[in-house]
Amino acid sequence: MNSRTAYFENVTWRKSRYSNGDGADCVEVADGVPGVVPVRDSKDPGGAVLLVPAYAWTHFLASLPAG
Predict the structure, then answer these.
(1) Which residues partner with 30 through β-bridges?
(2) How far is CA 50 from the centre of its chain?
(3) I want to staple 42 with a disulfide (CB 3.0 to 4.6 A). Which of 4, 26, 47, 63 is the partner?
(4) Which uninterrupted H or E stretch holds 60?
(5) In three state form, how does the secondary structure of 2-25 look?
(6) In 1-67, which ranges are E strands?
(7) How far is CA 15 from CA 2, 3, 37, 42, 52, in A?
(8) pTM (predicted TM-score)
(9) What is the pLDDT, as a whole number, of residue 22?
(10) How far is the C-alpha of 30 from the C-alpha of 21, rounded, in Å?
């Protein structure tokens, strides 16, 4: 584990409510990190964390279809 992933050990991760129940093909995001939205693969919680700028995450969510 590198120092970047160790930094995110103490944040609260959450899966999308649209994730399937068996845990496959899921991503998790963490809230409360100023300026960025950390994203990781739920199957590899000790792996890489993608840091998406908060403004880009907002635009991404706005582009998704409703429902």
Answers:
(1) 13
(2) 8
(3) 26
(4) helix 54-63
(5) CHHHHHHHHCCEEECCCCCCCCCC
(6) 13-15, 27-30, 36-41, 50-53
(7) 23, 23, 13, 8, 16
(8) 0.77
(9) 65
(10) 19
